[in-house]
Amino acid sequence: MGCAGIAVNSVIPGIHQSNSGKVAAIASRGIDKALETAAKLNIPRAYGSYEELLEDEEIDAIYIPLPNHLHMEWSIRAMEAGKHVLCEKPIALNAEEAQRMAETSRLSGVQLSEAFMYRHHPRYSRIQEIILSGEIGEVRGIHGVFTFNNAEDKTNVRYRKEWGGGSLYDVGCYPISAARMILGAEPEAATVHAFLSPEHDHVDMMASGILEFPGKVALTFDCGMWAAFRNTLEVLGTKGRIEVPSAFVFEKASILIHTGEGVRKEPQEMLNQYALQADEFALSVWGEKRARFGPLDAVANMKAIDACLESAYSRKRVLL
């Protein structure tokens, strides 16, 4: 649903490469764009409105990469039409919206998942195995960063505050979700400092923060859309640390384990994370595998983002 860059450049090619998915139709707000994209990506059917896509009885599931403020509306409309939904991150503008989406999923009996593609690569299961093995000792903290520079594109939807613009929504959500996944816990408090840019509708162009987790463990992170590109994660333990050089988007798949015995590099296969995401989503739709990251996980992630945004704008520590 929509011809966003993430769909055209990453998700649709990933579905094409998956073992389970087939992109049967694409819709845009106008037929010309839909036809152009369908021809480019070998998609059989094109629609000039989102409603037409929902009326297609042959469609099982819909991927939604629309601007953030439209996620709730069109996810709910799709689910009420009996379609399973894979919605781009962040799933909504706040936890209240995400909860409404989760409730619609429950009542409609369809799957709803948030599209954090990186979580489906097996290296994150491997990271959790290493932690559980005790090799790096007790986890003392996690540090994650995701920054890029797109500030010159003043018309970008990321710079519309009412549309859910800002770096916390766009890239800060990645280290936040990663820490929650790795620790298997929810944060208790957030403290965030942000650079709010008048040139970009006062959205947070850069944010640095700390999320406090149970057990006196914290995530420290920074995210930005007006900074040099970075994309890393580190899990710090009492006896060692795990370094993920390309944590969310791929340049390299390897992970590095630092201990008193030296540095061990574990190469990881360069699998298409979007294809893996499509396959895992399909298995949950078919009932062959329980979804690891269901609607309530998305609600919990939005609660953390809500607290980060509140802290950034109020310049106070916020309890969850």
From TrEMBL:
Residues 125-243 form the GFO/IDH/MocA-like oxidoreductase domain. It holds the Pfam family GFO_IDH_MocA. InterPro entries: Gfo/Idh/MocA-like_OxRdtase_N, Gfo/Idh/MocA_domain, GFO_IDH_MocA-like_dom, NAD(P)-bd_dom_sf. Residues 2-115 form the Gfo/Idh/MocA-like oxidoreductase N-terminal domain. Keywords: Oxidoreductase. Belongs to the Gfo/Idh/MocA family. This is Gfo/Idh/MocA family oxidoreductase. It comes from Paenibacillus oenotherae.
